[in-house]
Automatic annotation (TrEMBL):
It comes from Lentilactobacillus curieae. GO terms for molecular function: oxidoreductase activity. Gene3D superfamilies: NAD(P)-binding Rossmann-like Domain. Keywords: Lipid metabolism, NAD, Oxidoreductase, Steroid metabolism. The keyword Nuclease does not apply. This is 3-alpha-hydroxysteroid dehydrogenase. PANTHER family: 3-OXOACYL-(ACYL-CARRIER-PROTEIN) REDUCTASE (AFU_ORTHOLOGUE AFUA_6G11210) (PTHR43180), NAD(P)-BINDING ROSSMANN-FOLD SUPERFAMILY PROTEIN (PTHR43180:SF28). InterPro entries: NAD(P)-bd_dom_sf, SDR_fam.
Length: 243
């Protein structure tokens, strides 16, 4: 038996990287999964690779109507909704002097506003039977990083706690995951392999993580194994924030 047998999940930003890794592990553990992303071509490819228990829905996570549609698609296709993984996120490597208002608002809408929408509409479908919401924050939701990214990831941490308290009466658990440096397309956006190798020397475990390592943490929180955990931070950063 799988840890997610009989469960239905939505995972955002799942056309590549950590989101695609989460989706694969969820399917392996028996879940039916709705994956979403703005990238339709890659999203459909991942869904095709993962089989009949996965559907792809194109979604702009910053759009409220898209959220209503995704949640309704999950229930219409699979009959219920038990798990939400708010995984989609972006960052800009810009200083405070170069970060524009448009840049800042884009980060806010994708990293923070989308989490509010996701929790709001997923919880509506879960409140009769309970469920688990997993919000992917960052180690920069605990310590400083890039302006804009850090702000929103700290906010996700606070939103998680507030929602956990409000939704506990419905049997809905809400937790945040705080990854460090993970080997995903986000950190391979440019020719920075040498920089990543150098940065890895500062990590106590002396390496960056693979997406699958984060997926195992997300699986734990999505499953009944974490039945008494809510409103908490789960850090997976190789020891970075322990220093």
């Amino acid at each position: 038996m799988g840890k997610l047998d009989g469960k239905v999940a939505i995972i955002t930003g799942a056309s590549q990287g950590m989101g695609a890794s989460h989706a694969k592990l969820f399917v392996d553990e028996g879940a039916k999964v709705v994956i979403t992303d703005i990238n339709e071509e890659k999203g459909n490819q991942v869904a095709s690779e993962l089989g009949d228990n996965v559907i792809f829905v194109k979604q702009d996570v910053s759009n409220e109507d898209d959220w209503r549609n995704v949640v309704n698609e999950a229930v219409d296709k699979f009959g219920q909704l038990d798990i939400l993984v708010n995984n989609a996120g972006i960052t800009f490597s810009k200083s405070i002097f170069d970060l524009t208002t448009d840049d800042y608002m884009k980060i806010f809408k994708i990293n923070q506003l989308s989490v509010f929408y996701g929790m709001k509409y997923a919880a509506e479908k879960m409140k009769d039977h309970g469920g688990s919401i997993v919000n992917i924050s960052s180690m920069n939701g605990l310590v400083a990083g890039a302006l804009g990214y850090t702000d929103t990831k700290f906010a996700v941490r606070g939103m998680t706690k507030a929602a956990a308290i409000e939704l506990a009466n419905y049997g809905i658990r809400v937790n945040s995951v705080h990854p460090g440096v993970i080997s995903t397309p986000m950190i391979h956006q440019s020719d920075n392999e040498d920089l990543i190798k150098e940065f890895a020397k500062a990590i106590p475990l002396k390496r960056v993580a693979e997406p699958e390592e984060v997926s195992k943490m997300v699986l734990f929180l999505a499953s009944d194994d974490s039945s008494y955990s809510t409103g908490s931070e789960f850090v997976i950063d190789g020891g970075m924030t322990a220093q």
